């Protein structure tokens, strides 16, 4: 739980809360940043104290290294603050943050609903572990309304998984409508909120469990792997925390410390990268080689009104659909011609990235055809004018 001594309130601004959450305070003697605490064995003064400690396994209480320590607790408080939740479990990767709640709420014979636009490795969990364990998954059109969402739910449906926007094609989901339909049937709503960190408050829209790949904007420097699972209800916390413990999920305290340091500047980075991303997206939208830019903050996006209703801003990851006259080979030539954009997975760091997406994503519910070859761009902290110049020279490699 957040430390009552931390002088933060919901009335204070986001940057202020990021600067002060998860540390001792301003009127204390000592270093500003919490130190790195590493350890496996936790010592107790006597046997009775150790026995009593077992009663606190759902609290921020040191019992063994895998249950975390002060560095983890400080970071979990910060992420819970950002997400608007009460409890947070930090795990080793974003994919682990996807797996833990799925395994917490599903068992053999259950049914899971997964958006067709979901992060590829999340689909792999469904097609691998969950299928092997007798759990069925249905992939649904991410743009379903409340009635369509309700129609998808079966008597054995236990999880309605959401990801908004989708990781490659950026469909914005009506989370509130999905949550109403799901909760009317006793179904838990899980959400990958990585794109919407800070800009979308999941628990205000009915989400039960919010998932973050902290590798992205929280770490911010492309040098740590971390994930988080945040809840707003004690029963959900006990379910998620117990599953994480059973699976031995643990995050390196050194990575946690780096992310705790990185998150202090996230407000500034998010604001700058949002502005730069939109500048580049608008420039691309005006190019004759481009059929569509899949950025929810652009008025041309099919779910722009929904984004505007639910989000306070945008991150700097978006998709580009090229004109159908170009082959995917030509699009890959464009990406190969870029000098300021790295070619690699992930996003949210200080560096710009570009990857082809057509041929690299899986769909099974009839979604994802945008009428041309596609790529995904992440805009970093470089000057947008330099990125635009780089894109301009790369687009010149296209015929015609």
UniProtKB/TrEMBL annotation:
Top-rank EC class of the record's enzyme: lyase
The protein's annotated pathway: Amino-acid biosynthesis; L-methionine biosynthesis via de novo pathway; L-homocysteine from L-cystathionine: step 1/1
GO MF entries: lyase activity
Transmembrane segments: none
Enzyme Commission (EC) number: 4.4.1.8
Keywords: Lyase, Pyridoxal phosphate
Catalytic activity: an S-substituted L-cysteine + H2O = a thiol + pyruvate + NH4(+); L,L-cystathionine + H2O = L-homocysteine + pyruvate + NH4(+)
Highest taxon in the source lineage: Bacteria
Cofactor: pyridoxal 5'-phosphate
One Pfam assignment: Cys_Met_Meta_PP
Family: Belongs to the trans-sulfuration enzymes family.
Protein name (Swiss-Prot/TrEMBL): Cystathionine beta-lyase
Organism: Belnapia mucosa
Gene: metC
């Amino acid at each position: 739980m957040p430390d009552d001594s931390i002088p933060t309130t919901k009335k204070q601004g986001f940057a202020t809360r990021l600067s002060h959450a998860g540390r001792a305070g301003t009127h204390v003697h000592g270093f500003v940043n919490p130190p790195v605490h590493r350890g496996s064995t936790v010592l107790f003064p006597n046997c009775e104290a150790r026995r009593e400690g077992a009663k606190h396994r759902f609290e921020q209480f040191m019992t063994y290294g895998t249950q975390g320590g002060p560095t983890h607790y400080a970071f979990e408080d910060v992420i819970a603050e950002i997400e608007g939740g009460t409890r947070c479990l930090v795990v080793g990767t974003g994919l682990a943050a996807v797996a833990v709640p799925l395994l917490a709420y599903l068992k053999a014979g259950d049914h899971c609903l997964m958006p067709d636009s979901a992060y590829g490795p999340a689909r792999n969990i469904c097609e691998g572990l969950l299928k092997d364990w007798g759990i069925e998954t249905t992939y649904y059109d991410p743009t379903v309304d409340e009635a369509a969402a309700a129609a998808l739910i079966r008597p054995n449906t236990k999880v309605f998984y959401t990801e908004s926007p989708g990781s490659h094609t950026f469909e914005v989901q009506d989370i509130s409508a999905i949550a109403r339909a799901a909760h009317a049937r006793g179904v838990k709503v899980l959400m990958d909120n990585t794109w919407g960190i800070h800009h979308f408050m999941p628990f205000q829209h009915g989400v039960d469990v919010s998932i973050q790949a902290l590798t992205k904007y929280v770490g911010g420097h492309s040098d740590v792997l971390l994930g988080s699972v945040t809840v707003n209800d004690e029963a959900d916390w006990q379910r998620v925390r117990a599953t994480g413990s059973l699976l031995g999920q643990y995050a390196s305290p050194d990575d946690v410390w780096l992310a705790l340091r990185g998150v202090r500047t996230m407000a500034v980075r998010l604001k700058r990268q949002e502005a730069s991303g939109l500048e580049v997206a608008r420039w691309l939208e005006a190019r004759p080689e481009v059929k569509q830019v899949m950025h929810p903050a652009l008025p041309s996006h099919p779910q722009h009104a929904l984004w505007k209703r639910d989000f306070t801003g945008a991150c700097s990851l978006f998709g580009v659909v090229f004109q159908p006259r170009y082959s995917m080979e030509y699009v890959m030539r464009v990406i190969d011609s870029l000098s300021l954009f790295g070619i690699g997975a992930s996003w949210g760091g200080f560096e710009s990235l570009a990857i082809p997406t057509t041929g690299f994503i899986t769909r099974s519910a009839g979604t994802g055809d945008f009428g041309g070859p596609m790529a995904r761009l992440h805009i970093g902290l470089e000057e947008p004018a330099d990125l635009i110049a780089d894109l301009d020279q790369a687009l010149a490699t296209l015929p015609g």
